[in-house]
Write a structure and sequence with these properties.
six-stranded antiparallel sheet
Length: 128
């Protein structure tokens, strides 16, 4: 799937309610559910809502067929540290990010760079 297709799927979720461990547009999504929906991959259910274990998350991304890249572009998945012991996933757009925003209580697209430190940028293996 191309980066443009990933971004289009993420944008299709804008306005969906935020729900911890949510997996559907109707019932709500969290950042993992949004990433899974956008990337067309199954979402894991064996994760804690608070974790600082970036290595475990990165291993899961590799197992899901993503590779870490150094040249971020629209449709890539960003792994961010949104707070102490808190990781967050977002989809990069041309001028911002699409993510499941717990404060706004919905999936949103926000302009500008991610407001948190980016630990890595990931892309589907089949997307050149």
């Amino acid at each position: 799937m191309s980066g443009a297709a990933v971004l289009a799927r993420a944008r299709g979720a804008i306005g969906a309610p935020f729900r911890p461990q949510g997996r559907t547009l109707a019932d709500g999504l969290d950042c993992v559910g949004l990433a899974a929906l956008a990337l067309g991959r199954p979402a894991p259910r064996d994760y804690r809502l608070r974790t600082g274990d970036a290595a475990r998350v990165m291993a899961g991304l590799r197992a899901a067929g993503l590779r870490e890249v150094a040249d971020p572009r629209p449709g890539d998945l960003l792994l961010c540290r949104s707070g102490p012991g808190q990781l967050h996933l977002a989809i990069r757009s041309k001028d911002g990010i699409v993510h499941a925003d717990a404060i706004a209580r919905q999936v949103v697209e926000r302009p500008g760079s991610a407001p948190w430190p980016v630990l890595g940028c990931w892309r589907l293996e089949e997307d050149d």
